[in-house]
Write a structure and sequence with these properties.
single chain, 161 residues, mainly alpha, Four Helix Bundle (Hemerythrin (Met), subunit A), 3 strands, 6% strand
């Protein structure tokens, strides 16, 4: 039970970790990319919001349906065709916060055995709800580290005055 509580706490606090990574970001730093093909702060933040939207559907499907399919999506296509390069980071963070809070409220009230329910991901195969929550907790933490790396790269690349 403690493992589930710890996981849910990691899941819950992710938006605040992301918010801390975004503190003080402005101007050119928002759109800086550390290398060709890498994402900017703006793009990463929007990706987190859209990934949580996908997770919202996946969580509910696994909870409510018997072994539902969970289709993978093309993150690069979403970034390009949903114009991540122009989305406002503050709005993306707000969207991520609201979705994550709603997902947390749903998950925290479930019976522990519900986390054993399964769905089948098109690339990862069979996954329990517990594994799915862990993927989403890890996902946000990974992008927090990515944001930190982008910001550090920007500071190194920024011309000295």
């Amino acid at each position: 039970m403690a493992a589930l509580e710890d996981l849910l706490e990691r899941f819950r606090r992710a938006p605040e970790v992301i918010a801390m990574m975004l503190t003080g970001v402005f101007g050119e730093e928002i759109d800086f990319t550390p290398a060709p093909g890498k994402w900017s702060v703006r793009q990463i933040t929007r990706h987190l919001a859209d990934a949580e939207l996908v997770g919202t559907y996946r969580f509910r499907s696994v909870i409510a349906e018997d072994n539902p399919p969970m289709r993978a999506y093309d993150e690069a296509a979403w970034a390009a065709k949903l114009d991540y390069a122009t989305r406002k980071p503050a709005q993306s963070l707000d969207h991520f916060r609201r979705l994550r809070a709603d997902n947390y409220e749903l998950l925290k009230g479930l019976a522990p055995e519900t986390f054993e329910r399964k769905g089948t991901h098109s690339e990862r195969g069979e996954m329990t709800l517990m594994q799915l929550v862990e993927v989403y907790a890890d996902h946000a933490e990974s992008h927090a580290r990515q944001l930190q790396g982008v910001r550090e790269a920007y500071k190194l690349a920024k011309p000295k005055k």
